[in-house]
Amino acid sequence: MRITKKLYTESHNLSLDLVITDPKDGLRIAVQCKNYSSESVGNGPLLKLEAGKRFYKCPATLFITTTSYTSKAIEYATQTRMEIWNGLMVEEKIVKWMKKASVSYPFFT
């Protein structure tokens, strides 16, 4: 399966970093990534992603951060069915994929 993507530049992205499309079923997912060193993600960035989702007509959203989410952000994500990942979840998914694909990298051993 090949997933297609479209990257968006900061000038007109409406808080989207990319939209990925699954060619199998055509599902479009609006994605936003934030690399914060210590700040938890609050409602603001999630609200912007929701607006971008609607503008680009994506039925699903995914917000990825290197830190954590505030309790209000988690509540908002739950109510809007927004998938939220933190750095640990991303690492777990990469490790799981690597084991399944029999791939090894030094920084995950």
Description of the structure:
The chain has 109 residues and is an alpha/beta fold. It has one domain (4-108): 3-Layer(aba) Sandwich (Trna Endonuclease, Chain: A, domain 1). It is 35% helix and 22% strand. The protein is built from 3 helices and 5 strands; from the N terminus they run βββαβαβα. α1 (43-55) runs parallel beside α2 (71-80). The longest helix is centred in the last third of the chain and has 15 residues, at 87-101. The protein is globular, with a radius of gyration of 15 Å. The model has no long low-confidence stretch (mean pLDDT 83). InterPro entries: Restrct_endonuc-II-like (IPR011335), Restrct_endonuc_IV_Mrr (IPR007560), tRNA_endonuc-like_dom_sf (IPR011856), Type_IV_Methyl-Rstrct_Enzyme (IPR052906). Keywords: Endonuclease, Hydrolase, Nuclease. It comes from Bacillus salitolerans.
Q: What is this structure's SSE topology?
A:
Elements: E1 4-7, E2 18-21, E3 28-34, H1 43-55, E4 60-65, H2 71-80, E5 83-85, H3 87-101
Parallel strand pairs: 3-4, 4-5
Antiparallel strand pairs: 1-2, 2-3
Helix pairs in contact: 1-2
For the record, what CATH class applies?
Answer: Alpha Beta
CATH topology: Trna Endonuclease, Chain: A, domain 1
Q: Nearest-angstrom radius of gyration? A: 15 Å
SSE run: EEEHEHEH
Structural class, from secondary structure content? alpha/beta
Strand content: 15-25%
Query: Biggest sheet: strands, sense, closure?
Result: 5 strands, mixed
The total strand number stands at 5
> What's the overall average pLDDT, rounded?
83
* Widest sheet: strand ordering: 1-2-3-4-5
Outline type:
globular
If helices are DSSP runs of H or I spanning 4 or more residues, what is the number of helices?
3
Q: What does the oligomeric state look like here?
A: single chain
The proportion of residues forming helix, as a percent range, comes to: 25-40%
